[in-house]
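[Meeting: bench + compute handoff]

Bench side (C.D.) handed over the final construct sequence. Compute side (W.E.) agreed to return the predicted structure before the next meeting so the bench team could plan truncations. Sequence as handed over:
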Amino acid sequence: MARTLASLGGYAYAFSDDALWVNLYIQGSARATLNGLKVTLDVETDYPWDGKVVLKPHVDQTARFDLRLRVPGWCDLHGATVAVNGENVSGPTTDRGYIVVGREWKGGDVVELNLPMPVQRIAANPNVQTDTGRLAVQRGPLVYCLEACDQAEPLANLVLPRGAELKAEKAKDLLGGVVVVKGCAETAPEQDWTNALYQAIPPSTRVPITAIPYYAWDNRKPGPMQVWLPQTPPRPAVGGLETHAKVSMSYVSGNSQPWGINDGLEPRSSGEQPSALCHWWPHQGRDEWVQYTWKQPVTLKSARVYWFDDTGRGACRLPASWKIEYRDGETWKPVAASTDYPVKKDGWCAVSFTPVTTTALRLAVQLQKEWAAGVHEWKVEEEE
């Protein structure tokens, strides 16, 4: 951080014998000496929220030099405009990505650069297979993302059609004052596939969405975040009833992701570090739980768990013990297990029980003394 701040002036500006180069648009001032003449450049801008940049070169005497203004890669070089003392420069000279304004400068001259900032959809290289068919939202130099706390529907259900209108809007009281992108996405209702092989596709509905700058995510409520958005409904998650359940936990720290427990990504080992992980760290030696809740009653007969254990690098270990509980009215009751509750690394720990019909199931865990615990995946099996 110290090196970056100390080097910032060199990133933003450069100078040669006959030119002052502006590479980054940061409000403030810069001083340089061109051919023995001292030049001060004042910059006024609300960049990156606005593409208008006002530059005021100050010289003690009339001097000729070039002011070279970089046009960022996200902006069309020929879409940027420049004006000097209120008069537009028609067909400005360009050189290697810079607009070149060369003239005899005198006190009171003002240059205004405008970089258009429409909301854009960005595609990834097709070799990035996980982003195939998905688009990201960008405005100016900033990439945007969706956070769960801003949306009315789960992120996994949202689709952003190519033609959906998106608008930028200043949100002064959000995250220190940012520009958000608002619009409408589409979502399709969840389908119940119990005892069904085929069924008609339900109609989609329009829902409002709000995107925030990617750099600002994870500064409010814990929850999923997504940058690359599908243009068509994603393939339904492969798995059992756990894929349709809402996840809640007894304790969620700032770096625990409860939704990782039913994302269907089976680990290769207990020590694998996934992008989303459900855990209770830094709690140790306590009774904790994670819960599945369904909108309608379900009938279940077994469950299996894949434990997380980061021995050698972290504080999560296999639990001391675990059990399955189901909600009966307002009461939580243990299931009648027909097998033991195994605890092992690098594999599934399964338990069968007398079938129960419920709207919620809990994985109750006793943590080891002085250790936390985590769960890669928790699957449940319904009674046919």
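W.E. noted at the follow-up: The chain has three domains: 2-114, 119-230, 241-382. C.D. will use this when planning the next construct.
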